[in-house]
Write a structure and sequence with these properties.
The protein is α/β, with parallel strands linked by helices. Helix content is about 45%, strand content about 10%. The protein contains twelve helices and eight strands. Strand 3 and strand 4 form a beta hairpin. It starts with a helix and ends in a 5-residue tail after the last helix. The relative contact order is 0.11.
């Protein structure tokens, strides 16, 4: 809802790490309402909260109220092929989010859209079908978000762009070998990790070449722990895709998904379903020896370091954008529109 009452009830019982804000849940009414919601919840949490949103541009924009400058889809920026413009648009999105008290954007999409219209999940959410182009644009977006003080999360590792099934309705399978994957899907993740992206979202995607058991990447130690953490050397926060509402995970209970994701190497569990059940399952897993407290401590420290890097422990009240920043955002909006017209299409 818009007033935070449901979120406050969660905070009364569990010190959750943060909240995913969704338009479908009525979280976004106006700038003043969102700012009031995030300010209220921050004031009631002992540890600073992460407030995350999917604001990718184009059709995956959760914030659509008047006064918030929106931008076209990543596909449009790929066609324009202007890294500087991509960086500026990400900055403009980021400063607007920061002005609402939102500090994480689950963007940019780093998937290489290798199947074109045959991919129901990604399509225009991707910058394109060229790994190098996608890597360049994703890195530019990461730079823009970070310049705005927002934590971006590249997604959906190990790559959702070469799959014919949407993980919302089934389990996507990457059917290529490791060598081809290294040349294609892996490239944007490697580039953005080397550029210092603070978060990577792991998808519910089976990749038998990396995990012969066919486990979704989000639940696979071979993919999350070994390939992402060790192989690519990622030291930041690994966040799962939504654990509760995706049919790709229908074979496991929501409580078991939470445990398996932590065992696999995730730090942050996104929407684990019923919080009490997830917490109880994690405690049981520690008692049984499936999970170690050391592994949980390492995950917690990475999350706390991210919050510190975002300045959340010293942050004061969130203020609306000042007139100069708001005008800078508007200028970038006009710049993107002009680039689209110059390229021969309306965006």
């Amino acid at each position: 809802g818009a007033d935070g009452s449901a979120a406050r009830r969660v905070l009364d019982d569990y010190p959750v790490g943060g909240f995913l804000m969704k338009s479908a849940n009525g979280n976004f009414v106006s700038a003043d309402q969102v700012r009031g919601l995030t300010t209220l919840l921050q004031s009631e949490s002992e540890t600073p909260l992460l407030f995350a949103v999917d604001q990718e541009g184009g059709r995956i924009d959760r914030i659509r109220f008047d006064g918030f400058q929106r931008f076209p889809s990543p596909q449009v920026f790929g066609i324009l092929n202007d890294p500087g413009l991509t960086e500026r648009a990400a900055w403009a999105t980021g400063v607007q989010l920061a002005g609402l008290g939102i500090n994480v954007d689950f963007a940019p999409v780093a998937d290489v859209n290798l199947l074109g219209d045959g991919n129901p999940a990604i399509g225009d959410r991707s910058f394109g079908d060229d790994p190098e182009l996608v890597a360049t644009m994703a890195r530019s977006a990461v730079d823009g978000f970070q310049r705005a003080g927002i934590a971006p999360a590249v997604k959906h590792f190990p790559g959702h762009g070469n799959t014919a099934v949407d993980s919302h309705i089934g389990l996507p399978v990457v059917g290529i070998g490791v060598e081809e994957w290294t040349r294609l899907d892996r490239v944007p993740f490697k580039v953005t990790i080397e550029a210092g992206v603070p978060m990577v979202m792991v998808g519910h995607i089976s990749f038998p070449a990396l995990d012969p058991d066919g486990l979704p990447a989000s639940l696979s130690e071979s993919i999350t722990g070994k390939e992402l953490r060790t192989g690519l050397g990622f030291t930041g926060v690994i966040v799962t895709d939504d654990l509760a509402s995706m049919e790709a995970l229908a074979g496991w209970s929501t409580a078991e998904r939470a445990v398996m994701a932590l065992v696999a190497g995730a730090d942050l569990l996104l929407n684990p379903g019923e919080v009490a059940g997830a917490v109880a399952a994690i405690l049981d897993a520690v008692e049984e020896g499936r999970l170690t407290e050391s592994l949980i401590d390492q995950a917690l420290l990475r999350i706390l370091h991210l919050k510190a890097d975002l300045g959340l422990f010293e942050a004061g009240a969130t203020a609306p954008l000042d007139p100069a920043t708001r005008e800078a955002v508007a200028v970038i909006g006009r710049e993107v529109s002009a680039a689209c017209v110059a390229a021969g299409f309306d965006c």
